Records
---
Amino acid sequence: MAVLRVIFGDQLTDNLSALRDIDPDNDIVLMMEVLAECTHVPHHKQKIVLVLSAMRHFAEQLRGRGMNVDYVSLDDDQNTGDFTSEIRRAVTRHRPAGIVVTEPSEWRVSAMVERWESSIGLRVEVRDDDRFFATRERFNAWAQRRSAWRMEHFYREMRREHSVLMDGAQPTGGQWNFDHDNRKALPKDRLVPVRQRFSPDAITLAVIEVVQSRFARHFGRLDEFGWPVTRTEALAALADFVAHGLPSFGDYQDAMRLDAPFLFHSLVSPALNLGLLTPREVCAAAETAFDEGVAPLNAVEGFIRQVLGWREYVRGVYWQLMPEYASSNELQAVRKLPDFYWTGETQMQCVRTAIQSTERYAYAHHIQRLMVTGNFALLAGIAPKHIEQWYLAVYADAFEWVEMPNTLGMAIFADGGRMASKPYAASGAYINRMSDACSTCHYDVKQKSGPQACPFNYLYWAFLIRNRQTLSKNPRMAMPYRSLAAWSQERQAAVLAEAEAFLDGLVATS
Ligand SMILES: Cc1cc2nc3c(=O)[nH]c(=O)nc-3n(C[C@H](O)[C@H](O)[C@H](O)COP(=O)(O)OP(=O)(O)OC[C@H]3O[C@@H](n4cnc5c(N)ncnc54)[C@H](O)[C@@H]3O)c2cc1C
Ligand code: SF4
């Protein structure tokens, strides 16, 4: 009897565990485009196109390998719109002996799959997702041994365990960390590479039409769609990055420039998160570039730290702490999300540029996410759920397992330090140092108060004052709290009032 092999939209990997022992003559591969997944947050139009187009291409590829694929498309008249009822329909169609699935990446979908066996009355085998360096159990074993988790410790253990960038027992070059070399601002005249983008083919164009008509009101533009939707394209994108971006990735990892949305970043996260690339091959490509003298060690280590370190670490944190993690709100932030997150209509140049890039490409690089839109949300005290749902909606690479810890843990410190040792709070001076945005901004980054003052300046101090009780005990926050100690009560009250007036003047998302 047939076995139903269910493949979710971010499981588009040739040797996925659910496909490994497939019997092509009997088994059915089931792939489902369902409305509930397109609308549970108002995903960027490009993100929906990316996922559906990559799924359709993957289905074609599996058919080319002789597999029997039952593909339920969004515009199928019979489509019931959610995974569980589509599974029921497929069971009626194929009468399988059982269901095999690779563990879903999100807690919400995983909980749904756990209910299938009892609600459908068939055996459901859930297999590990071994596309990551660390299984969930491996992270669990690491986490159980520690009272406080730090990415750096986990990362070093992963480097040793997987022999990545190691000379025997020692890190290549004798150093684990090159962060201090990787914080350069971009010189004005430094050229940045033009990056490879991919023109939509017939399959992608058909999906674009569906998305235009069914999700017209969702955020984002479609005219700049250029994401890789097949493994072949994803490999080309990786090769383009290694040749043109990686050599300077380390030096300018934290830099921002108004006219350069991609800088030296890899742009591989959408392909990685869909499974078109694996983290192992991405790290191996970077390590080979170092061995062949194509890229220096600070760049290669900096890149591998993101993939083998941060990406694996945030996944571990997510599975350790869900579902309670989703409602973290250590700083008791309650403000609504300002409307400019959706429209880009703000006079803050750095914020406007990050949001315009998001709208145009479904992409903003890490420092824009962390130190501009994230920093603003942190300083303004935006309610975690509001900002978290925004991040989940607007990026092509946004999947909850990686987005949520980055938002709640890294950007807005809602988890009280489970993920990161201190809040990434910064005034306008940081943005000015790392970007060219301030020179053409309506606001003056040097002014601390008054109508022309950069809002990040007074919001920063107001944030410290508001959260003194929670944050002043953190040793990594000692310096700003020492400065604050010299402020009179009147000065503190004035900064709080100015910040409140600015925030109250913003139009909130309805
Ligand atoms: C608030 C916030 C939300 C984020 N949401 C997402 C998200 O939904 N999906 C997502 O993949 N990343 C997310 N990130 C992490 C990071 O910003 C993106 O992975 C990165 O910008 C993707 O672009 P890139 O491929 O050019 O990355 P590069 O800068 O070239 O980095 C290389 C790769 O390292 C990995 N990586 C880098 N930083 C992180 C990180 N902090 N956590 C996990 N992986 C990392 C990614 O796979 C990335 O492709 C978020 C970060 C913040 C601060
Ligand atoms: S002045 Fe302030 S708001 Fe304007 S770009 Fe600089 S940091 Fe951003």
Note: The mean pLDDT is 96.
---
Amino acid sequence: MNADVDVVIAGGGPAGLMLASELRLGGAGTVVLERLPAPTGLSKALGLLGRAVQTLDYRGLLGRFGAGVVPAAAYSRFAHLGGIPLDVSRLLDAAPPGHFPPPLPALQAQVEQVLEERARELGAEIRRGHELAGLSQDEETVTVEVAGPGGSYRLRARYLVGCDGARSVVRKQAGIGFPGTPPTHMLRLGDVTLAEADLSRLPPGITRTATGLFSAAPLGGGVVRIVVSEWGPPPEHAGRDVPPAIEELEASVRRVLGADLAMRQPRWLSRFTDAARQADRYRAGRVLVAGDAAHIQLPAGGPGMSTALQDVVNLGWKLAAQVEGWAPPGLLDTYHAERQPVGERMLSFVRAQGVLLSPGEHVTALRDLMSELLMHEQTLRYVVDRLLSLDVRYAMGGDGAPAHPLTGGWAPDLPLRSDEPLDGILVRPDGYVAWAAAPGDHNTDRLRHALQKWFGVVA
Ligand SMILES: Cc1cc2nc3c(=O)[nH]c(=O)nc-3n(C[C@H](O)[C@H](O)[C@H](O)COP(=O)(O)OP(=O)(O)OC[C@H]3O[C@@H](n4cnc5c(N)ncnc54)[C@H](O)[C@@H]3O)c2cc1C
């Protein structure tokens, strides 16, 4: 086999950069191809919640976020279900310690900066200004065509991972389908400066009016993220590639909110939709997809970057094991088996939130009902766990008999004490429990099975 590098990653966004570190931690060599010559400094995502924060903490990266996390008590500022506020503070006292990781209100640009720094430290090669233009694969390698600053060249790798975002060239050229639901409406976005007087009269959260939706999130320094949407299908002429003019944004806010906001110094103007699509397979031979390349959705509740990070933390150690030669048969395919259902469930949750954000009396009635249901602690806990991906659980039992309740879930922090209700625990590199035994459980077959299935160890 004649490859230039173990793994080529297309795309240096959050997914690609995190994957580069994960591969290096597992001993694999990697080159990241990023078409942009330099970071733009712009941020789609404004923060991370739940399991994604736990995962960064697990990798020792939270301390790199400057002011960093805010107390879990501040969750209620960030958490909502289709614009219905979720009072997470009501759950904190009853939750086991550490159940709700603190929110990380870090802009995507900062997340990317931290992840890039870490990937470089670990020895990943990041080539900026290099765009993947094409690919082909055979039994043993993937060959990618790259358009670089010095001209075009070819790179051969044992595996290629498309972390190249929603319009992934990798996904398309690997022949991976992207079925889903088309856009039902368009949203306009502007990171703009507002006058002090306007800042003080912005409504909190998401405002749903007879004409559309409005939200405003302060980004600091007088800059505010305005998102506005008007009911009705996306206008034919409004291609997503054409950013709205600031006047267009102002006029839309006027129609939705009935207020004039004087916007200045636009830092970023954009539009997006509620299209929801998912790759029909996460692997095609030696090509895999992760992050937005594998699923796109309305950023309701901010699931995109969080899911992207969790995709690649699931994939990284398995792919490294594959190229390092110790992966047991089928290990790499558990990436699709585990992450595709998580993505599908996330899309379903986001679509449901999209309905709650739709117009009409019937939806208002549904929102009222949801608000009442959310008064019940059990319902609130269920919804919050789902929003924060704290309910992610992989099927790892194996022999059909009831497994230890920790099996398949995220490994909680447990004190190393002899009086714990646990005699042993096997944790995978992504932080999930592959096997656990209660005191007195002398069935070593399950441990043997887990060691073999996940680590190829025949004991
Ligand atoms: C308005 C908005 C708000 C959001 N808010 C949140 C939030 O609060 N929380 C959250 O978790 N998520 C949020 N998201 C979603 C989040 O931004 C995305 O899910 C996230 O960026 C996905 O990361 P990624 O690495 O998969 O893809 P991307 O961030 O799209 O990165 C892909 C990278 O690949 C590069 N690339 C593309 N094609 C090629 C090629 N052919 N060759 C080389 N490089 C290529 C691109 O330049 C880019 O750098 C939001 C999204 C939007 C639109």
Note: The chain has a mean pLDDT of 93.
